[in-house]
Each structure stands twice: as C-alpha cells, then as structure tokens.
Recover the amino acids of this structure.
C-alpha cells in the first residue's frame, strides 16, 4: 500500500465544483502528514485543462479519464473507474467533496471496495500513520471522531466551506496519466435525457449569505421580502421544511436534515422557530441572525443576534438599508 492520497475532482462541463478544490486542500494536508503524494482523479470528456489546473493547485499527479461515457456524471462508470484505479495503485486515502455527486460516489466506491467511509467531515488528521476524521453527529451537538480499520483506502468526504482551496500556481508541474474508461456505454444502465437550468440563482451550498423563511412568513407571498433581502445582499434564499412541505417554495430551497446542509458566513432566519431538523442544516453558520415574533423560539438559543418582532417590518427595512449602502 502506498502513502498517496487520491482526490476526486467533481466537475461539470470542464468546470470544477469549488468543493473539489477545498477537498484538494484537505488532501494536501493529509498527504503531507503521511509522506505521500496527492493524486487527482479527473474524469469527464476533454478534461485535460482541468487536470492541469489540479496540478497547479497542488496535486502531484493526475489520472485523466477522458471519454464520452464520462461526459456527464453517472455513478456507474465513474465509480467503476475510481475502483479500478484504487485497486491498481492502493492509495492510503480517497478524499472527495461532500457534493451530491461526491456523497453518492463515496458511498458506492466504499461499498464496492469494502472499506470504511466518513461523510461530511470537518476535520482530518493523521495519528499513528492512520487517517482520523472528525464529523458532526446528533445534529451537530457532538463531534464524532472516526478511526478507520485496517482496510484501505480510508474514504472521506469533506464539508463545503470548511477547508481552504489552494491557489493555482501556473508554474507548478506534475504528471498527467491517461486512464481509459472502465465501462462501455452499452453496459451503463443509467441514461441522461437532459438538464433543467437554474441559471441566475445563487446556489444554497455555495452562498456566503443565506436568507431563509419559515412557517412565520405565512404563505407563498411572505417569501417576497425574504427573496428581496437575499437579492439585496447577493445571497441565496432558503426555507424550512414546514414552508417547503406547505408548497410555498420548491424543495430545492430547503435547509435542514432532509434538505441541504449549509455553512455560510451569514444566515438570516426569518419566521423560523428553530426545529431540530432545521438546525441540523445551518447551525454551523459563522453568524446567525434570527427574526421572530416569539421571544422563546428555540432559534434564539443558537442565534448570535436576534430581533423579536414582525419580520414584515424588519426584513424590508434591512433590504432597503442594504440597497442604500450600495448606491
């Protein structure tokens, strides 16, 4: 077994998901402690440029799987190629970003290899030559310390906006190694018919500022001031499960245990009581502001700043003040 750390680069259309570079930063730290190299796995079609960027950002080597069967993410051909490369080169660890694709990939690869998996990690360290991961548990009330057994590689996914993404160094050099596909198209059962575009909207998972609405907004119309404040601060609009279940906003906006887990610099909760399920998805935000008429709402126990009052008075006022300062 080598001491190398494999890093899967999650990408679409030749552009990496930002969490892939954050995962690369985490992989560099682990590889440095193990005394091994960072080896990027860049899968897709016409992704040589992305592989070179991985080298520039800190990978020492990159396996480039460039083939039409890999043009769009499908877990079957992607996982098959990653499993093959892992078996051929026996890395000590495999690191991925905790994107939707990364979570699916990590679970599939770990199951096929029969190795341990720690998802959504916020800390990685090497102790006694073995990887140790830290991840939130019980909606973030405790931090679980995950120690891997003897089976290798240790597979981990890292939470967004926790690790720093290395800057690109255009002069940095590394090896690019071609890796052919592991599956033929006719053997892949999943087919992609098309995609729905969400152009123009800020991604919840990438947003530095999120403004969310809950049951307290009263209905679909109540999300207008919430969205207006999100637009004013250049952020994304979120929602609680209660608001989504009521049909007031689409599921894509849900923050929480059954929605998206986010870690923005600023989270503004409007009319959200602070149910355990919702807190699981946002309580690690750097700054939490709560606006609620109920002074005893649980959200205030986690908020850094709180406003006890009518959100329909305060949210539009905040949006207007932001716009004034931008003029």
């Amino acid at each position: 077994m080598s001491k190398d750390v494999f890093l899967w680069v999650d990408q679409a259309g030749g552009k990496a998901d930002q969490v892939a570079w954050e995962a690369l930063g985490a992989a560099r730290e682990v590889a440095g402690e193990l005394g091994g190299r960072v080896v990027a796995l860049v899968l897709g079609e016409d992704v040589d440029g992305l592989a070179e960027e991985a080298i520039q950002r800190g990978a020492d080597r990159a396996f480039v799987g460039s083939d039409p069967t890999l043009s769009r993410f499908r877990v079957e051909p992607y996982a098959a190629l990653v499993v093959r490369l892992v078996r051929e080169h026996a890395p000590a660890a495999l690191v991925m970003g905790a994107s939707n694709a990364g979570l699916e990939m990590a679970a599939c690869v770990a199951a096929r290899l029969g190795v341990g998996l720690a998802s959504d990690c916020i800390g990685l360290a090497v102790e006694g030559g073995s990887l140790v991961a830290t991840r939130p548990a019980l909606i973030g009330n405790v931090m679980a310390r995950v120690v891997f057994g003897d089976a290798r590689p240790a597979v981990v996914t890292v939470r967004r906006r926790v690790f720093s993404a290395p800057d690109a160094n255009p002069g940095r050099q590394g090896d690019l190694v071609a890796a052919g596909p592991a599956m033929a198209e006719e053997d892949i059962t999943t087919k992609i018919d098309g995609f729905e575009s969400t152009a123009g909207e800020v991604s919840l998972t990438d947003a530095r500022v999120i403004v969310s609405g809950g049951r307290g907004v009263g209905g679909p119309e109540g999300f207008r001031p919430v969205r207006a404040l999100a637009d004013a601060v250049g952020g994304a609009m979120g929602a609680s499960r209660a608001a989504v279940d009521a049909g007031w906003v689409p599921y894509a906006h849900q923050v929480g245990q059954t929605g998206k887990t986010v870690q923005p610099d600023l989270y503004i909760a409007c009319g959200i009581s602070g149910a355990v399920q919702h807190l699981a998805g946002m309580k690690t935000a750097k700054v939490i502001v709560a606006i609620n008429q109920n002074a005893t709402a649980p959200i205030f126990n986690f908020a850094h700043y709180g406003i006890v009052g009518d959100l329909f008075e305060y949210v539009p006022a905040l949006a207007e003040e932001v716009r004034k300062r931008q003029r």
